[in-house]
Amino acid sequence: MNVADSEIKSLLQSYPTITVYGLSQDPLKPSHYVPVFIREKGWNVIGTYPKEHTIGGFQIYKSLKDIPKENRTFIDVFRSSENIPEVVDEILTLGGTEVLWLQLGISHPEAEKRAENAGIKVVSNRCLIIEYKKYF
């Protein structure tokens, strides 16, 4: 993680759109209720999920490459830690990402370092709900 705690509030304020990688259709999963919470707090939330769904009224794309580049600047990831290298590969190939946020319990130091070396701000093992409540 190359973002200091003191930078998180301004980082969140700087990005009105958050793309959620792995936005679940199951309302009981964090990968669904965290995006709902963030949307209720004023952010535009777009999601990716391999199966099309309309649960929660989110705009869902099958993959990150289908999302317009201007909406891929801040990516919040809900994938297991072992999948993060693949996610970082995809992000680096597509370009346009400025922030990579790995949700609570998710980290992969080597993949995070590759993203950081590419100029991406990385936050790992942090929950958007917890950080929102801490700073707003």
UniProtKB/TrEMBL annotation:
InterPro entries: CoA-bd (IPR003781), NAD(P)-bd_dom_sf (IPR036291). Pfam families: CoA_binding_2 (PF13380). The lineage of its organism: Bacteria, Pseudomonadati, Spirochaetota, Spirochaetia, Leptospirales. Residues 11-106 form the CoA-binding domain. It comes from Leptospira ellinghausenii. Gene3D superfamilies: NAD(P)-binding Rossmann-like Domain. This is CoA-binding protein. SUPFAM superfamilies: NAD(P)-binding Rossmann-fold domains.
